[in-house]
Structure prediction request, 520 residues.
Amino acid sequence: MRGLVVTKTGVVCVLSATLAYGGCTVERRIGNASGGTAGGGGASGSSTHGGTAGVHNQGGSAGQAEIGGEQATGGEQAAGGQQAAGAGGVNDAGGGEPNLGLAGSGGAGGEAGAASPAPCGDGSVANDEQCDDGNTRSGDGCSATCAVEVGYVCAGARSVCTAICGDSQVVGNEPCDDGNTNNTDACTNQCTCGPGLTGDHCQLSRFVFISSTTGSPAATAWGTNADGSVVTGEQGGQAFVWTQAGGIKSLIAGGQIASSVGYATSADGSVIVGTYTSNNGQNAFRWTQAAGVMGIMTGAVTKEAANSVSGDATVIVGTTTRFVSGGGPFRWTSGGGMVALPAPTGGTTSAANKISTNGMVTVGTGTSSAKTVGLVWNGTAVPQVIPFPVDTEGSNAFAVSSDGSKAFGIFQQIGPGGPLFDWTALGGPVIHSSPAAAWNLQDVSGDGSVMLANASPEDGPFVWQPTTGQQFLRDILTAKGVNLTGWSLVAHAISDDGNVIVGSAAQSGGSNIAFIARWR
Prediction:
């Protein structure tokens, strides 16, 4: 039975009709009784993703019955903030009818714990993460800290990262990325290896014969362009051009030209210069795909050769008998034609060997005080003479850096070979000694950091770098898996980027075969 009310000292309680109680005199009143004050909420729990609220404190004390013992405590708060009514006070004993207090309200639920940042590697891109591919490995496009790595683009909630082709960054499964749009060089527009090339950075095929491997007809590679993708030389007595897409092709389509040799190319390989022999003698030529082989000057000449061309093909240098019967250096420009390069004061000239890529500086050889000397021409001015040590027989200048700031050559000694040197106008010559003497210096990389020379026929070509000194090409290629047993090598040119060397190879008693070597 509910609704029996007892009033005592201003407190109103509801008693349970099922409880036993002792006899007593009671005053009956009709009214509502309320429980005591609810207890405060418990402390909130902590959780990674906002976890369950903590257990609340007990409810407040139930109101006392007018007659009876102490009241029972209120119930505990349910988890997650749902309220549970506290139990009403209990009249332990008494003679009168029990009164029951209304159940006290439970305390309010605690606040949810604050969420911590989502961890990197869970596959969900959140907070300040640039990507999240579901792992914490670097090197796959999304780093261990969920940042997009250089050379990749990432997309999706579980990020999928792919390499960017054409940004010059070799990453992921790309074997190469040369950053250009030339689809016929060593690396295609899809960042795959060009024809005949495979493996890491398209350089596992380090050494490639670009002419007939039977040695018939004989062939020699004399020059290459800035990145080694175009090669020129001579095969079977005629000048050729080689590309990976087109292979080896003759520059001469028959006619009055008896023989020809291609010596050098422009930076992009679109222009080749060299020499050809016809009824008018031996003439320097300039070749383009559109015009074919064209003599750079008209008229008969006894002997003439274009040895080098500027990067943009507007300047050509070489040797001619047009001005001096014994032959001397010339400089040709598209606007001014051919002019003789002057001799040093009190000396003579003999050849212009190389022009800088920017077309400003030419290096060559001449004589001064009855000694062979290296010469450096700035434009068409009187050349500077490269001095040589007193214990040597003279100097030769065979190469120049792309910007014209350094000339390179050999100091001649009695007997074959001599030490390499580089020379600047302000610093003079610097000697670079090597265990095996260089018989001739052939070329240098555009920045001058790699010198290419030939030593004795037994040793063959070598590269010289400030960090490593002398390294023989045979040893470098052998260490990279190229079998050169039985082959002798002669090198003639190195690309401006320093990565490609061209020349000729032959077996004992065999003919020359043109090669291209990607040595690093």
Observations:
- The radius of gyration is 46 Å.
- Residues 473-479 form the longest helix (7 residues).
- The chain has a mean pLDDT of 79.
